[in-house]
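LOG
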Amino acid sequence: MSDNPLFKRTIHKHEVPSRYLPEENRSIRIYLPPGYQPWMSYPVVYCQDGEEFFNFGRIATHAQRLILEEDWEPFIIVGVDVNIKLRSAEYTPDGSRYSVYTRFFAEELIPWVESQYSVRDMPEHRLLAGDSLGGAVSVSLALTYPHLFNRIVSLSGAFYDVYIEQIQQASSLERLSLWMIVGLQEAEYATDRGTFDFVALNREAAKRLEDKGAKVRYQERDGEHKWGFWQQVLPEALGAFLGPAPLKLD
């Protein structure tokens, strides 16, 4: 089976050029589904913390199994890498690199991917996914670029006050659909900004989003702020938008 191109799993790595980022490029990795054909079009998942989603979340392995064994429509995954030392600066709205990172993501990364691969270019076929700060910045991107993004997976989002303020300042969010989860063992998690109750942060964010009209599938389960928890729930999270029986979020 492994020799058959219809079952091949392909991952490409690229350096995407940037006029905004000081280092002038960003590393990404792209999963192509089995049987990928450039003349077809595919839904696409854009992941913050791309290296971790691929290595620790095993998102490409999940996707391969779901497409081949559970008959999901094939989809593409784009993992956007981040320098861990610059992560807070890029992902947090009051961070020193937030504006250049989000501009890169929306104005350079998306057009580059769409020029190189057969991904669909409509918001309903783009899914933003992130863990912790990555989940929160995914919401932030959707608020800043509503014409590009309206579907989000947030795994234990780090919804600090700066993100809540963004949600509060937004007008109607009826276009947004979110799948959110947080672990019940995340009630006292240490971050570079202090120790936070992530359960409380996520409850607050979900409520504020729903108050603005967003469709939110919010869950709390036993789990820690670790990839061991997020890896287990990734298939369900993806299935909310990409599976054969998606949740009624729309």
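LOG (cont.) second protein
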Amino acid sequence: MDEDTIDDDTLYVLTAALLTPARFPGVLGDDYPEACAALGLDPWARGYGLVLGQDGEGARWTVAVDDVSLVAVAISSWDCGMAYDLSPEERSVVCALPGWPLDVAVAAPGVPAPHDPEPDPDLEVGAAARGPDGRSDTWTPLTPPDTTVWGPAQRRLGADEVAADWAGWRERYDAATADGPEAGEPLPEVRRVITELRGYVERTPPLGRVRSGFAPGGARTLRADGPGWSFVARTDDMAFVLLDEEPNEVLPLARGPELPALLAALDAMAVRPA
């Protein structure tokens, strides 16, 4: 990038994420309304696209746009290794928030290193960045979760990673049980998760608490969260559970006789991508 062409008002896009009922960064909350509240956004049914980048001075910005399809196409293209110039139109911008809620490992070339922008009282920013008195000059930049500690955000992040690398975690489980039988009766904490999941089937939980996504072979990947726990499963296979009280542990839940019916019921009521 030629430094003579840098525009301080330009956002140099580094990555993007979807914030919809069926797909949102787990670190933001257990469900879609909670994830929106973390960014000071109203939980619109159609959702948002989150565009993360730097301005010409290198400052970190997260821009929420209502053109969800544009962001979805960009993410799909990047996932396939294809180039895609994500440039949302100004009229699609809902709000701009200082900082990044997610960890971004890259930086824009030709601009200063990523840093939080200085407060600007004349700049309108989203509600999540403003202080309790509503003034933009008391804003609090978004920050990614601290991965050196364990808590709800880190637990949900771990569950997202298990879902993204299902085959790898399945291989670890197979290796661990190669010389012995599969796990029998679940631990009491995992049994509690199963009970709460059954409650979700009987009583509709907050939007996005249970989400169903694509999986190979016609199966579905299920993601669910609740107070103190996260759940990842394949409808044709087993499940994994992460708990707030078990730091950095991924607990397996063998398929057994109960799980198939529960997974089918969860998949039937789960939110799916449009």
